[in-house]
Amino acid sequence: MQELEPSWPGDPRRELAAGLAQPAAQIAPKFFYDRLGSALFAAICQLEEYYPTRTERAVLADCRDELATLAGTRRTLIDLGAGDCVKAERLFALLQPRRYVALDISADFLAASLARLRREHPGLLVNGYGCDFTSSWELPDEVPRAERMFLYPGSSIGNFAPDEARRFLEGLRANGEDDGQLLIGVDLVKDPATLVAAYDDELGVTAAFNRNLLLHVNRLLGCDFALGDWRHVALFDPVQSRIEMHLEALRPVTVSWNGGERQFRAGERIHTENSYKYREDDFVQLLALAGWRSVRCWTDPRRWFAVMFARAA
To answer: 53-93, pLDDT tens digit by residue?
Structure first.
């Protein structure tokens, strides 16, 4: 893994073509994050409807003293899906990391974020890597394995189905020593109207974020998706306890790429994201199954969002 070099395990074109060829077409949410997609997600985090970012920030402000006591200082802070790095940066004064390591699939967007951090925090050792950390990965030898704290904020763990989330959390546990730590944000079950609004805002920023995915796929796979043929759909599945995002064809469409094509009926959808919502006890149990111990959980007064701290041993 080289610093700020995009790193895709396998061939993303093959993965995209296989997803589009499924009986129910799908595109993995990691493909949202080209430069524009990353900027749009940063804008989503500022929206009134999108409660997770501000609620998580408030929870962290309330628990900061206890978190500082539990976590200590001078660790290597590994930020998963760092994006603009702002969420991690808010913790620098509290955790005083020895080194900050940012991982994100959008290497170009991350490079600009890290350039700003290096200017504003000249005493902090900063590394960044463009990688798909949702697959198998390991940090280079220059990043010590001891005293790692993994930061996974913003409820991104919800993009994984529960079994996938357990395997991902096991992978984090394996990427550190017995002194490893995890600080993770978890979105909790709440009324469906609030959930759907967070993923289908009135301004249409989330719709733009979802539809921009097609432009990224066009570049990666050589497709001919036209944005005017598709609309954004967000819905809550109470049985699966998850928000789903889709792109729905407004008319019959044929999409072609080198070596393949797919015909879509009017109303047919491409599944682009799941965001699972948990109950506190269920996620604590999931952490335990993945090998994490000594879990401490903090929530907001409405119990809309949880921040959890865990140890590897």
So the answer is: 999 999 999 999 999 999 999 999 999 999 999 999 999 99
List the alpha helices (DSSP H) in the chain. Answer: 12-21, 35-44, 51-71, 86-89, 92-95, 107-120, 162-174, 192-198, 205-221, 280-289
In a 10 Å sphere around its CB, with 0-12 CB exposed, 13-18 middle and 19+ buried, how is residue 291 labelled? middle
What are the pLDDT digits (tens) for 109-124? 999 999 999 999 999 9
Name the token pair of 42: 């940063």
Say if domain 51-191+278-311 classifies as CATH 3.40.50.150.
yes
313, 252, 234: which is closest to 44 by C-alpha?
Answer: 234
Output the pTM of the full model. 0.95
DSSP conformation class of 96? -
Largest CA distance in the chain: 58
Distance CA 296, CA 290 (A): 15
How many Å apart are CA 205 and CA 128, to the nearest integer? 27
Please give the single-letter amino acid code of residue 63.
C
For residues 276 and 240, what is the distance between their CA atoms, to the nearest angstrom?
8
